[in-house]
Amino acid sequence: MPAETHDLASELLSGMRLLGVQYRRIELAAPFGVGFDSAPGRAQFHFVSRGPVMLRTHSGRLYVLNTGDALLLPHGTDHVLLSSPDVPCQDVHAFSSTPVCGNVCCVKACAQESPDEPAALVFSGCMEFDLGGMQMLISAMPEVLLADTLMHKYPEVQPMLEAMERESLGRRAGYASILSRLADVVASFIVRGWVESGCGDAGGWLQALRDPRLGKALVALHREPGKNWTVAKLAAEMGSSRSVFAERFLAVTGMTPVRYLTELRMQLAVQWIGRDGEAIETVAWRLGYGSLAAFSRAFKRTVGKTPGALRAEQSQRHSAQIAV
Which fold has domain 204-323? Predict the structure, then answer.
């Protein structure tokens, strides 16, 4: 990977937030078919403590997962865990569930475990997947990201997977909390591995990451989104004329530099206001807007609602969570 691409990957990963909101330890005795609904804005993580298990994705592709395999579905699309391709399926919520601690529960998707054929065991997590200003990268990710492709580059992943297997099977004191933390780390490794390998075959604006000169301009934008950028200044980062830079930027990313900067700023604004609870005035200043009115107009035009409306929605969600 070129140095500029690696720099942008570092910018991306420094803002990554991948934390589980709900985990399940699922026992699966054949024949089984367990469905997971679509979860927009969230990723789904699966680790096979004891296999084999089949995964059928939203597109219909079938994966065979063995003991120790882990994967991430970054788009949170609906999918199914199966014992064989022709087994009828039920939603995971239809099976009996027992709370373990916090946001972890145990699910039994089986009538009775046979001593001759132990139930398959999967630890699953539904995760908040936030890349901040690089949120558009998620749309370029494949349907499934597999952990086994990381082993040669990140040998430290293997001990973590082995620890997950031990904790899931042994169920010692505090195992659920340990499993959830390991899942967060392994999922982050999976994302980092995909980014640092060049983002697979992804095209579109990601081609800019592979462009040694254009990549410099993108790194600068993401590093200082609140700077008073002009096409001339960005062209200087790339080391070209304004016209050459603007044409190249539009051809690769599909949008003008001004539009790209606005989208980037508003994605960060949503994160800082909605997730981090920063004051709207502070966010406007951090993103380079000279007035709150100008920031609010740009926010509503891009996001579809005012910053105040976003703040109110987040407050309502927080109050509802407390009430539950």
Answer: Arc Repressor Mutant, subunit A (1.10.10)
